[in-house]
Amino acid sequence: MAHPSSLLQGLTLVEEAVRRERSGRLPHNASRLAEASGIERSRVSRLTKELRDLGYLERDEASLFGAGSGYFHIASALTQPWLRAARRELRRLAGAHDVTSLVATADGPAAVLARIESPAGHESPYLHAGARVPIWCTGAGRALLWDHAEADISALLDDVQFVGVGGPGAPRSVAEVIDRQDRDRDRGVIDAAQEYVEGVQEYALPVRGLSGIVGAVGVGAAARGSRRTREMQAALRAVADRLSALAGGDG
């Protein structure tokens, strides 16, 4: 029998740690987490370290686990009106324009997919809610960098490994990312051609809240004719404006 994915096992560990914390009882250590989750102890050790590195779990001086700041950040984001409304908006985009549509939020040099919808029969094997993708070679990821100055982009991507990541159109240096950001700001939309996956054309725009960019909305599909592209981009812009209005940024 195949082992459950690391993602599902990691979510199980976070869920169990939060459940225990909410119960008011003594939090679990690694052994108790393994026992409660049914995951072998060695995998619990590896996964909890990764979850701590990502900020989803914290471990105190007694080696007891609780929810980390990353967990609370995501939980807070998911309650926001704009993100709740995004599901309906994404479904409309996917159905009306035969595209994969998604919303992402920033987490350092990664974009975290908070919502994703695909047209019927075209579910993506490489994109799913909760996935972390490179912020610098995905449409929605680069939309999250829309307001970043050159120095901010350079600092964020200073340790990024560009070689071997992304599709054939992915940028291969910080300078190339900056050039594409300048180009796409002039165009008024992020245009990421085969940057993450070969054969996929992505377009994306930021979602703005009171304090600046709170997320990004994007669409992806095979390249298509100019008329359909214009219609898709117009629909994308309307969604970004509506979500920004709900987030308090008014587009």
Give the arrangement of secondary structure elements:
Blueprint: H1 6-23, H2 30-37, H3 41-54, E1 57-59, E2 65-67, H4 69-78, H5 81-97, E3 100-107, E4 110-117, E5 132-134, H6 139-144, H7 150-156, H8 174-187, E6 190-193, E7 201-209, E8 212-221, H9 226-247
Antiparallel strand pairs: 1-2, 3-4, 3-8, 4-5, 6-7, 7-8
Helix pairs in contact: 1-2, 1-3, 2-3, 5-9
Description of the molecule:
With 251 residues, this protein is an alpha+beta fold. 46% of the residues lie in helices and 19% in strands. The chain folds into 2 domains: 6-74, Arc Repressor Mutant, subunit A, CATH 1.10.10; 80-247, 2-Layer Sandwich (Beta-Lactamase), CATH 3.30.450. It contains 9 helices and 8 strands. The strands form 2 sheets. It has a 6-stranded antiparallel β-sheet. Strands 1-2 form a two-stranded antiparallel ribbon.
Structural key phrases:
251 residues; Arc Repressor Mutant, subunit A; Beta-Lactamase; 2 domains; Tscrpt_reg_IclR_N; DNA-binding; WH-like_DNA-bd_sf; HTH_MetabolicPath_Reg; Helix-turn-helix domain-containing protein
SS-based class: alpha+beta
If you compute it from the alpha carbons, what radius of gyration comes out, rounded to the nearest whole angstrom?
19 Å
Give the CATH architecture of the largest domain.
2-Layer Sandwich
Q: How many runs of DSSP E, i.e. beta strands?
A: 8
- Shape, per Cα inertia axes: globular
Query: Number of domains in the coordinates?
Result: 2
CATH superfamily of the largest domain: GAF domain
Element string (H = helix, E = strand) = HHHEEHHEEEHHHEEEH
Report, as a whole number of angstroms, the end-to-end distance. Answer: 49 Å
Largest sheet, in brief, is: 6 strands, antiparallel
Task: Give the helix proportion (percent range).
Answer: 40-55%
| Number of H- or I-type helical stretches | 9
Can you give the mean pLDDT? 87
Instruction: State the CATH topology of the largest domain.
Output: Beta-Lactamase
Q: What strand order characterises the main sheet?
A: 5-4-3-8-7-6
Q: Kindly provide the name of the CATH class of the largest domain.
A: Alpha Beta
> How much beta, percentage-wise?
15-25%
